[in-house]
Fold this sequence. Notes:
The chain has one domain: NAD(P)-binding Rossmann-like Domain (Rossmann fold), CATH 3.40.50. It is 45% helix and 18% strand. The chain has helices at 12-23, 35-45, 60-71, 95-119, 142-162, 181-184, 200-213, 223-232, 237-247, and strands at residues 3-7, 27-32, 51-54, 77-80, 84-87, 125-129, 168-173, 176-178, 197-199, 218-220, 258-261.
Amino acid sequence: MKKALITGASGGIGLEVAKRLAGYNYAITLVARNEQKLNHLLKELGSGSHQAILADLCNHDELRRLMEHIGSNDYDLLINNAGNGHYGEFLEIDLEDQLDTMRLNMEATVALSFSFLERATRGSALVNMGSLLGHSSLPGGAVYAATKSFVANFSESLWYEYKDRGIFIMGFNPGAADSEFHLNAGRSINDFPKFVVSSVSEVADELVAALKKRHKPRVVQGLKNRLMLFGFRFLSRAAAIKIMACISPGMPKVQNHVPFSTPL
Length: 264
């Protein structure tokens, strides 16, 4: 039985991917900071050698413990799915909140990838959850978009380093997903234009399909998102940024910054 560890697994995309992998006979280790949700999800996954680890990956000590766990267990797959961000213009958002976003989206991703790759063998796979914004920008979410650009570049570089060793690494980049984190943050998915929104089921299906193919280092989820990025090639950079500003819930129509996150 193969073993997979998924961070940010107590809801949204992480939860849906966990369900699908359990259906393919993976033993899943779920990592999140919400114990109640983790326990509920374990029951939902049903029988199998599944387990949950409670961890806040913004906490250095808890991150270190998870690194040690990964470093002493033979996982076939690691999905770095946990991440967060804040909507709002740069100076409206508390600096420490933005630094936490950088710690989780970048530092934790690098640290867990390091621990995993130290033990990874031929046939193993690492998936880093990026974003459409890793290849675009988001006024009203500047730090979040910047962290996802880091994840995209980091993942592609690792893909090349490990491809000849038989270890697959992918940066997976969804657009806006219809998950509960918008409601938890006090916003609605309706704040986004409908044409950019995908369901979490669609996102999870594409992630698992891309993982099966093990072909591309960078996967942009959703035809509409791929078309958007393709269209941006024919615009000036200023015009493309302006379009993203019009889409962004973090620009002037939002008076106060609102946090958003994948489940931790």
